[in-house]
Amino acid sequence: MTRRLRAAAAAIVLVVLSIIGHAAPATAGAPDLPTPPAPRRVVIVSIPRLGWDDVVPADMPTLAGLADQGAVGVLSVRAIGRHTGVAEGYASLGAGNRAQAADDEAGTYGRAERLPSGTLALAELIHAGHTPRGAGLVPGIDAVVSANAHTHQGARIGALGGALRAAHWTTTLVSDSDGWDGSRGAAGLALVDPEGSIDASIPLDVPTPTALSSPPAAADPAVVAAAVRRLPTQRSAAIVELGDVARADAIHGDRGVRQEAARRVDRDLAAVIDELDLRQDLVIVLAPVAPSPQAQPTPMVVAGPGIEPGLLRTATTRRAGYVTLPDVAPGLLSWIGIDAPSAMNGTPIEVVPDARSGLDRLAWARTTIAETRFVDRSQGKLMSTLPITFGAWSVLLLVAAFVRLGPLRRPARVFLRWVGLVISATPVVAFVLAASSTRGWGQPTWFAMLFGGAMVVASVAAAVARPHARLPWLAPVLIAGLTWTVLVVDLVTGGHLQFDSAFGNSPTVAGRFTGVGNLSFALLAATTLVLACIAHALIRDDGAPRAGVAVAATLFALAVVLDGLPGLGDDVGGVLALVPSAFICLWLLAGWRFTVRAALAAAAAGAALVGLFGLYDLSRPAADRTHLGRLLGGDTAARETVIRKAVSAGTTVYHSSLVWILVSTIGLGLIAWMTRRVTLERAIPERSDARVLAVSAIVLGVLGGLLNDSGVAVPAMMAVVFVPAAVYVLLQPEPDPAAPSSEDTGVGQADRVLP
User: Fold this and answer.
1) 33 falls within a domain
2) Cβ-count burial of 562 within 10 angstroms (0-12 exposed, 13-18 middle, 19+ buried)?
3) What is the pLDDT of residue 9?
């Protein structure tokens, strides 16, 4: 056994070294490429509420043709809340950062023309200390600034407009004079400067519908073309808002109404493009807010000088085809040769070459977002179903413990152990399902496959473990090993199962697009801890305790590298939690007494390793750096980021449904300790590997919850691994009276748990 495990440890070391080598930055210099010509002007065509389902080439041939000439991106419009409003979308675009703004106050965000001197709007701006200099006003800017004062995002409203004005570029707003869904003038937030002004404002006259049930009114393409002809031709940035789809969305129009609105928008888009020269003018078509009611990423197409056909990508997402709304402003500024202000936490947009046609790239995006919407809906229901299942199982455990069941006691214990295995197998089955497209299944089929697969895995693990009575922990360890293996293999091969999966990262939430998400970290850390303690126990029993500690340390090292190395896991909070927990576990496995000095050393080890990862990240090209490298490179938003993550972690107590798993776990633990303390102390004796596992699991759960912005969701997901395993070991059915006694089989009470 020792020889085989040592060989496995050596293999793990080789894997770690190969991972580091694979992720290391290339030292060869990149070839010098010709600098693309800078555009003479930039036109942002905003189509609020446009979704990927609306982008049908037959309905929008102009957009499809533009995609063939330029680059396509899936735009994550998540601002601060789960659902981004119209004003929030424009404010985030203009800030180059996530911002919030109340749509119900959007009527004060803009005016079609500058109000005469002395009017209320201008007076309010001047009274607030602003000196607007443009022909257009956004008098509501102070309301937006105030709304973002305590979001800890560091957003500076008007950062894009301010950077353009400082570089002597003019700004122009082209939008409906009367607005469309109560957000009159909100588009001005995209190009307003910090003083509340825009250089020019051109209204688009759109007839007002006579009733909510009337077909949405449309802008005349000739009027749109005339407005674009009035735009300056040099050093000019403009936003042209086409609101036909938003009007259809506001009246909750059916599919036919939306299609007709998309056709009208495309005709207006054609009027815009016909007035531009894409050899000199850069055009950005995007939807700053998603269709209602479901949050989802929206379309984005960029064409013009220096933009090759391909997919959009940023350092924020590090995934071809995906960008975020805060990336648009720094991307625009980089294309025209202006440095982005430090308040912008978005990153410049680049184009990844893609040989497919524009139609194929659009079809890819439509299919991808259809999958995303299905996964988002399924995940939402799963995150409610799993806590309910866990809570019901916990109640049944208490019933079995305190109610006399007579002859049903033994089958009840067998059933409850099996249910625990099903719960612990659910995450790994979900990751496996993410390897294929599931949107065509429908949610009933998806849930049947998920829980049916978990039942199969649980049954197989129990069947394999049944002949090995001396290893009562074998079944849950098999499931933990399967989960660990799937996560490790996936991360080593690119982390494809981490993205757009039920327990992974969602482009709608836009917390991260690559690397290890918080729930995945929880599963990886928990299963690593279980496997490390089991490996140590087995090797120690073979008479090699030091080798057992070495194997456990190797398992932890692999998990830390996969979780935290920039370019792989990119998980700073995970490393800060996992390294001290691993340090404590290894310290106790080695038989040393834990002291305050050891605790400080554990914390220092976590911080030091994060520092090393940060220096490594800083050595990589700027476009490939994660937030850790950008922080060490002088990111001034570090304090705000820490505060924001702490606030986010705190709000999960009442926002995350997974908190009920944690509540159930704590409740089970307290009741078991108060009523079965002697049994527990006998099952996990002091200095045993079982006691080390229990202590380390508590430390890992506490640190994981405190140091990750998912808060209570992290220890709750760890409980999905730890609690079923503990229950499986502790609830071994009493021996069948007809079966051989423990003296005959050699199985005693001490063999029921880890040594």
Assistant:
1) no
2) buried
3) 53
